[in-house]
Write a structure and sequence with these properties.
The structure is a single chain. This protein is α/β, with parallel strands linked by helices and 355 residues long. Helix content is 35%, strand content 17%. Helix 7 links the parallel strand 7 and strand 8. The N terminus and C terminus are likely disordered.
Length: 355
């Protein structure tokens, strides 16, 4: 029987690597594992910006990133004939930086730092400096521009096709908010009862844990030291806060039990999903696995003998942010606004972009 080859041959590597694998981890837990999740955000954003004339071929797109968005944006620029400049976090390693440079991106990398707040503020300051010198650059603003939600409709469609009808909970670590928010919004167009559980590191302002310090952790890509406009707090039903020790335990446990080599944010989401699934057996829990574990080889996987057994871990259930405490807490968020007066509205960024 002849093999259908047309559908197997991709015109660009982004089409090949964006499609995730769905892996059943438990009867009601499914991992949606990506090589690099943010390919969807970057491709969706770049296509939209080109289509509406906001950017043109040959123009330079600039943004700040802790890693996987940087590579996704560089690949999207490679595909569509655009230039790319990345202001990179201290967490971007040599492997990532080398790929960016070979793809033609120019890279400004922040100096070594264990302080997430300082790292992010340095990056934003550098982006603003570059825009003053090069006003023709287009700032992608992955943290703020809702154009990054668009690509995740394709992921939601994939999930809807792959899983049987029934109660569904999406569990994912919250960085910019676009992946968890975009997937949940699109799924809720089919079923408003789809739940969304977000996962945060301690020290992040996004869901109010900034008064805590977890000195061992910079979990790349999740949490934030500054408000992100793309985080729509009203989408989330539950929030888990985890420290580095718990995230590491779950990341090692995911590989040990299921042979899945994934990043620290995936491990954190896996731990939260397992706890939720045990209490809601009637719901299928979809865990977002944003990337592979390569950038955590030294800090996590090489230290696997130090990892505690995740089976013995449990969160403290809280009713208020006043009760938030290390090392693991969980709270019903109930799709509420976040009472942070410094958080700009999404509408303010839409108006800014339109002007």
């Amino acid at each position: 029987m002849p093999v259908e080859t047309e559908s197997l041959v991709h015109e660009h590597v982004t089409d090949a690597i964006k499609t995730p694998a769905l892996i059943r981890l438990a009867p009601n837990v499914v991992l949606i594992r990506f090589e690099t999740l943010k390919i969807y955000a970057a491709l969706g954003a770049v296509r939209s910006l080109l289509a509406d004339g906001s950017v043109r071929k040959g123009q330079t797109l600039i943004d700040s990133s802790s890693g996987i968005y940087a590579l996704a944006l560089a690949m999207a620029c490679h595909r569509y004939g655009l230039r790319c400049h990345i202001v990179a976090s201290t967490t971007v390693d040599l492997t990532m930086r080398s790929q960016l440079e070979i793809l033609g991106a120019t890279v400004d990398q922040m100096p070594p730092s264990e302080d997430l707040r300082l790292d992010q503020r340095r990056r934003v300051t550098r982006v603003q400096e570059l825009l003053e010198c090069h006003p023709d650059m287009h700032w992608m603003r992955q943290y703020h521009d809702p154009v990054h939600y668009l690509g995740y409709r394709e992921v939601a469609d994939l999930v809807a096709r792959a899983l049987p009808a029934g109660p569904l909970t999406v569990v994912g670590s919250v960085g910019t908010g676009a992946s968890t928010g975009g997937i949940a919004r699109s799924l809720r167009e089919r079923d408003p009862d789809v739940r969304l559980t977000g996962v945060q590191p301690f020290g992040s302002v996004t869901f109010g844990s900034e008064r805590f310090t977890d000195p061992d952790a910079i979990i790349a890509g999740i949490g934030s030291a500054i408000p992100f406009d793309n985080v729509d707090h009203e989408l989330y039903d539950r929030i888990h806060w985890l420290d580095f020790v718990h995230a590491m335990a779950a990341t090692i446990g995911l590989m040990r039990d299921h042979a899945v080599f994934a990043g620290l944010s995936t491990g954190a989401a896996y731990l939260a999903a397992g706890w939720e699934a045990a209490r809601n057996p009637e719901r299928t829990h979809v865990v977002i696995g944003a990337d592979t574990g390569h950038r955590y080889t030294a800090r996590v996987f090489a230290r696997h003998r130090e990892a505690v057994d995740p089976a013995g871990l449990a969160p403290r259930e809280i009713a208020s942010l006043d009760d938030l405490a290390l090392p693991w807490a969980v709270m019903d968020w109930r799709r509420r606004r976040f009472g942070n007066p410094s958080l700009p509205s999404q509408q303010s960024y839409r108006k800014e972009r339109a002007s």
